[in-house]
Design goal:
The structure is a single chain. By secondary structure, this protein is mainly α. It contains 4 helices and no strands. The protein has helices at 2-15, 19-27, 34-64, 79-85. The longest helix has 31 residues, at 34-64. It is rod-shaped. The protein starts with a helix and ends with a helix.
Length: 89
């Protein structure tokens, strides 16, 4: 791959192009909507990064969340309490 890039630079030099022009041709598309595609790529990558950070924060919050809210007492319901409730009087 690096040999191909060196050949592109050599051919560009033979044609009389500067290093900046060769890089522009190789890296950026000369099409009509080149800026649009670059902008969309940047937005897409930012969305992926933001989504990854949000999911990381959400998962760590779920892991650290307590079962009982602070200040509440634990449940003291026992099985015999249900037996008393369903007895026919």
């Amino acid at each position: 791959m690096s040999a191909d890039i060196k050949k592109f630079y050599e051919v560009g030099k033979e044609l009389g192009l500067t290093k900046k022009e060769i890089t522009k041709i190789m890296i950026f598309d000369n099409s009509k909507h080149a800026y649009l595609w670059r902008f969309l790529l940047i937005v897409f990558m930012l969305l992926i990064i933001i989504g990854w950070f949000n999911s990381l924060i959400f998962l760590t919050r779920q892991i650290n969340e307590n079962v009982y809210p602070s200040g509440t007492l634990y449940s003291t319901v026992k099985l015999k309490d249900f037996k008393k409730k369903f007895q026919v009087i």
